[in-house]
Amino acid sequence: MKRKNKISIPEIIIFLIFILVLSLFTGFSALGLYAFGKQIQKSWESVSWMPSTATIISHPSEEEEKLDEIIAKKKFLYGYIVNGTDYKNDTIRFGLSENEIESRIQNLKKNQNISIYYNPDNPKESVVENAFEFSNLIYPILFFVFCFLLSILFFSVEISSILFLFGKEKIAGSTIKMFFGTLLAIFTFIPLSFVSFSAHEIYKGIQSNTWKKTNGKILSIRTIYDNHSTKHSNTKVFYQYASGGKTYTNSKISYLKEFPYIGEEFDTFNLYNSSDSVSVFLNPDTKEESVLIQGTGIFPFFVLLLGVCFSNIFGFWFAIYIDSHKTLTKKISPQKQRSVLFTSFFLPFLAVALRISFLGFQNVYIYHLAENWPITEATIIGAHVHVQDKNGVHQNISDRTRLSQYIPKIEYSYRIENKEYIGNRIQIGGIWSSSNSSVAEEILKKYENRSVWIHYNPKNPTESYLERSGVFSAYSIGIISGLFSVFIFLILIRIWKIKK
Questions:
Q1: In whole angstroms, what separates CA 334 from the centre of its chain?
Q2: Alpha-carbon distances of 398 from 227, 228, 385, 387, 406, rounded to whole Å
Q3: Which of 30, 31, 322, 429 would disulfide-bridge 470, Cβ 3.0–4.6 Å?
Q4: Residue 172 confidence class, pLDDT cut points 50, 70, 90
Q5: Chain-centre distance of CA 83, in angstroms?
Q6: Are 72 and 64 in contact (CB under 8 A)?
Q7: pLDDT number for residue 260
Q8: Distance CA 351, CA 478 (A)
Q9: What are the structural domain ranges in the chain?
Q10: Checking phi first, is residue 257 left (phi over 0); if not, alpha (psi -120 to 50) or beta?
Q11: What is the mean pLDDT of the chain?
Q12: What is the DSSP string of 144-172?
């Protein structure tokens, strides 16, 4: 006779709270599924919407308004009339990122008339651009799939918990298996999304080599600062160009997508700051797409390799999970499982080690190249110490709680051929830091409030250094990472020899 387990009231309360939490997560996932699905659907439908004319009634370039002691910028908003009824909207195009939206509205102004497209069935819905492009919808599609898998994950846990409560252990066990299968599918999908992103970036970078060249002009250069410090974090360049009688605005510099490097924001600023005109390469098919520098870089290929490796690891476990349910027609041998799994596991480490080794020896090359670089006088325009704690948060030197590393920050200006440049590189080979605050402060005293001599690259004056030092750390990084790469490569050879 089957014994019936009694459930106490506290257990029921805990269970109900657990189910409520799971229901909330399931609801949020379903809400994301609905939102991204609707965005994709509306983007498709907008192609057949009716054209009309609208007037910009609000623009971010206007003076900020004060509301209840809170400074808030005015948002982009346009108004239009359909069948005698006034409507307002702020949608540029479905699937655009914040940066792309900012680029689109950069050249617009208040009271300007623009062309729009509205939904004849629901005139409240409208867009400024109604082109349906997969490249602009890649992120909504990826998030749609992710939310779909996440909804299945939380829903399966919720159902299995209810089944267990009512003594349906066998059915609940099947639901738990679905949970693990969905979990593996999510972990397989996440790196695949990086693969999709990298493949798209590589494709666009290669495609940009064939884009049409035209003349443009720099509209503005904005430097975005870190929230925790005055350190420059990013510099955005907005430029304008004309084609086919229409004017376009963009901020895309290139598809190179390199790792951020020391002085990157100043290189961007120096390159375009004093430029009135600039060469722009635009996509002849979709003229809204453009870059200032053609081609692709190493970084998308690096992310692509990492994505493929990690998706292989989880994908192979997912295949084993499916195989355990006798779904696959071809049996996966245990030997092949181990070979592919270990190869996928070690390949990311090999890629990272090779990349770090390359950066190390690249700095060694720059160090020796700099022996023949000219020197020029520079003026220190800023010098301070940043403190980085264990969480990576940059704080002021006065905040001495949970400190990890002291990083001297020095900014200087110099002139080459009557053009002013700004730099912040102290030495070749990366950021200089110390766990001792007095050491970092000593470095500042060497340069504070005085003129200095710097080394600069005559072929690229934006690249400059206060000191031609740091070669030892560059050698160390290059050699150690290189040896680690060889070690992993030998392991991979050994794995595939065993397979044979």
A1: 38
A2: 17, 13, 10, 9, 11
A3: 429
A4: low
A5: 43
A6: yes
A7: 55
A8: 14
A9: 9-38+135-199, 50-129, 212-293, 367-472
A10: left
A11: 76
A12: HHHHHHHHHHHHHHHHHHHHHHTT-HHHH
